[in-house]
Amino acid sequence: MGTCDAVLQVLGGVVPRLSLSEKCFSISDSNLLSKSLFTHRKKKGSKHMQFLHCSSLLRSSSNNRWVLGIGRAPHINISVHRSAVTSCNCQQAESMSGITSENGNGTWYVDNARKLSTINGLVKGTDILDFDKVRESKEENEVFTSNGNAPAVETVRDAFPNVCVDSIEDEAWELLRESMVYYCGSPIGTIAAQDPTSSNVLNYDQIFIRDFIPSGIAFLLKGEYDIVRNFILHTLQLQSWEKTMDCHSPGQGLMPASFKVRTVPLDGDESTTEEVLDPDFGEAAIGRVAPVDSGLWWIILLRAYGKCSGDLTVQERIDVQTGIKMILRLCLADGFDMFPTLLVTDGSCMIDRRMGIHGHPLEIQSLFYSALLCAREMLAPEDGSADLIQALNNRLVALSFHIREYYWIDMKKINEIYRYKTEEYSYDAVNKFNIYPDQISPWLVEWMPNKGGYLIGNLQPAHMDFRFFSLGNLWSVASSLATVDQSHAILDLIEAKWADLVADMPLKICYPALEGQEWQIITGCDPKNTPWSYHNGGSWPTLLWQLTVACIKMNRPEIAAKAVEIAEKRISKDKWPEYYDTKRARFIGKQARFFQTWSVAGYLVAKQLLANPSAAKILITEEDSDLVNAFSCMISANPRRKRGPKRSTQTYIV
Ligand code: GLC
User: What is the CA radius of gyration of the chain?
Assistant: First the structure.
């Protein structure tokens, strides 16, 4: 079936959507799932707590205890190191072998095995050779060469004075390496913040999925692939966790918001400890927010890993394919919704506190679109997933139509809304969502530049959230959810509103801030989200990397370069804070952590991409011709023609 037909079927409601039974796994999938579940371990006396464990057998004498390596590779007595790594890796290999048996050794296993062999020669040479072959082919397949059509590197580089900038970059690399967290001797992620001045750690000592994305990209662009591969595979195992909050379990494909490596005493043996992975799916998070963005970022990182390293064996693994499908099935499941956008609760993404973004926030929609495109590229064609791919394609078209059409505002569109008729009961209403023109806030009338526009924050019946949200807009550019014209207009707006959005430190998370009664009602009087602070109009240096990707995609890297230059004036002196406060980002955030890893990594990725713009391809997705065709079919199709009862294809014998 052509995509055009698919679109028409969506409109007519006759496309086979995923039914409940179809959401169940195929036999091979469920086998696989149960195998990966074997690696979980229930702790005695703790009903809900489960750990992914790695049985690091350690001696308890103080001078040879394994110390969990946050900050640097564990410095310990070599003989103990050896035994710890050995048992960790044996455990890993065992738990993964069922999963990878079909295609021989998974590279993750082989890679660890290779490391082992260099330590104590435990692993036979054949595995190691396999790994080396992968490496070789990676080098051959090196995706990015200097002959891409991206803008010349020199123009961007020349804009920077060299001396202090180099030292800022060096410092950033040092900090990023110090933030690495090790699990059984292998790097697995980066800690959210390492602020020695903070007395209240909360969960900033965890590895957050969304925070790791810029770290992972920085490592990929540096050619250091292991940490990203380990992160992808370990978080995948956490996906199938038994997760509950007050007896309720969220959907199976949910990825955690964060996880922690803990060293705990081994059951029944006081003298030994083990390292365990302890995830948080929101059941411990402040506000109990579900991290909808985690799985979407995971898919985006997985694609970037394959594209950058040339190692496609990770995305081809059966367990990884299953992981992708689980995330997709969770997102594509039928609900009550009339819209193709994902319906989520407040706080389900980077803004993980109540900020009035429940419903269909742009950030989630842009990540959803991006993840759908990435997944489409990676999913292995097989009979069992045809329905899923069909649903995915239909959703891509409907989602891009919906966002481009209904989320977009510029001067012209505001003027249209200003003149809207309301209470239109008809199939061809102009004001479909019954938006009352009085909703157009006075700030917007003043703020919207003549040249430029953006995608609004949220759309619900009788509600348009006109706030500008940076991440959602930037990722809509990067993922091609916004059209080419819209993408340029978004960058035009950022340039026109530089003093508001960039000011003294890039980049405002959203604009404007909620104040007064609005702040009281919408945030619930949240003292952390006071006007122009934190999520409520605060400025977040980590957003530099998404800004850079969007600018490079539109061939306008000089905008990002200018923002990086502003950041460089203060970011290191200010100790890499998590966020800045005030309208012009003049103060370090009230409760901002120092040495926030994604501030460091966001800066580094921006620098790496500006130095080598063609590398941004690992993050960018382009709309392909199938989608363009389907989209134009959709626009020209008359939705009314498709109405009427769903025709049944089933025959009944009476
Ligand atoms: C805050 C941010 C969230 C981030 C976390 C760890 O909760 O809102 O986006 O992931 O800190 O840095």
Answer: 25
Maximum separation of any 2 CA atoms in the chain, in Å: 85
Query: Which ligand 1 atom is the nearest neighbour of the CA of 210?
Result: 10
Question: Does residue 166 form part of some domain?
Answer: no
CA of 352 to the centre of ligand 1 (A): 7
161 located within any domain: no
**Residue-number span of the structural domain to which 198 is assigned:** 180-632
pLDDT in tens, 472-519: 999 999 999 999 999 999 999 999 999 999 999 999 999 999 999 999
Q: What would the pLDDT profile of 359-410 be if each residue is shown by its tens digit?
A: 999 999 999 999 999 999 999 988 788 999 999 999 999 999 999 999 999 9
How many structural domains comprise the chain? 1
The overall average pLDDT reported for the chain is 77
- Determine if ligand 1 sits within 6 Å of the CB of residue 210: yes
How far is residue 156's CA from residue 436's CA, in Å, rounded to a whole number?
45
Residue 129 covered by a domain = no
Q: What is the CATH number of the domain that holds 350?
A: 1.50.10.10
pTM over 0.85: no
Separation of CA 461 and ligand 1 centre (Å)? 29
Residue 563, domain member (yes or no): yes
Per-residue pLDDT tens for 206-256?
A: 999 999 999 999 999 999 999 999 999 999 999 867 767 667 777 788 899
Is residue 280 in contact with ligand 1, taking CB distance under 6 Å? no
**Is residue 225 classed exposed, middle or buried when 0-12, 13-18 and 19+ CB atoms within 10 A define those classes?**
buried
Which atom of ligand 1 sits closest to the CA of residue 596?
12
The region that residue 81 occupies, defined by phi over 0 for left and psi between -120 and 50 for alpha, beta otherwise, is alpha
Pocket test for ligand 1, best of 210, 255, 364, 528 (most atoms within 8 A of CB): 210
